[in-house]
């Protein structure tokens, strides 16, 4: 016979169970968005090279038609189960995203390169403003500081003079529409299947870009360019948007915008590492500011609630040591 378990003496402390790592679970959406920004950053030097052989509008059409087709095949069952509200949300989000990309493509074709990155990055400021205007979402002081740091970093990274013309206005419009997309995605992705929502957005993007490019005919990539196009369509298109949809369902829009501001930092880093460009003080200083902004946006809420040490298993007495 097994003896019954002995009761602990009154002076003994019962063993403490290690708590679930809640803080790390809360960090996962931010880390996922950081991975999205990394993948997006890897596309700039590829795209710059590819559009020398494929017209920009045709590039957008082919890229997102491929992404839409892959998404429809891979997530066919999820798409069949998705309700009408998810389809409406995905189609609208995809159309909004397509408008932003068209404005960015037009703006980049005529605007100064020195201001294009900065103007596009204004969506970091626009996103919390859109969320406040639409739903009166209040932004915490840490997030406001993170937005300011990210904007300053974007200015150092890419701003060397400002001339306001048609191209600059198009990029400003692009940043505004991107802000709407990020704000809407944070709102509409909650409670929905992120895989289906991402795939529907790709289908919508492919349809819009095809309608825009079709009147002049569409030039398809040739030879090895298809390998680059597949990466841009499947990894940086469908995969990134699915992950973004999942992550934004778990955080507010302002935090998401700050984290995704790392994209130009990754873009410049890839250009230095793989594209033959030189490391500059702008990349070092601007990138550092945006990195600090990202860390602030991610860690401040956890520090404020004192959850990091508790998630690592430290009790109140251990925290004070």
From TrEMBL:
Keywords: Cell membrane, Membrane, Transmembrane, Transmembrane helix. It is a multi-pass membrane protein. It is found in: Cell membrane. The chain crosses the membrane at residues 27-47, 59-76, 85-103, 115-135, 142-163, 169-188, 195-214, 226-244, 256-275, 281-304. One of its GO terms (cellular component) is plasma membrane. Residues 31-157, 166-296 form the EamA domain. InterPro entries: Diverse_Substrate_Transporter, EamA_dom, EmrE-like. Belongs to the EamA transporter family. This is Putative DMT superfamily transporter inner membrane protein. It comes from Actinomyces howellii. The lineage of its organism: Bacteria, Bacillati, Actinomycetota, Actinomycetes, Actinomycetales.
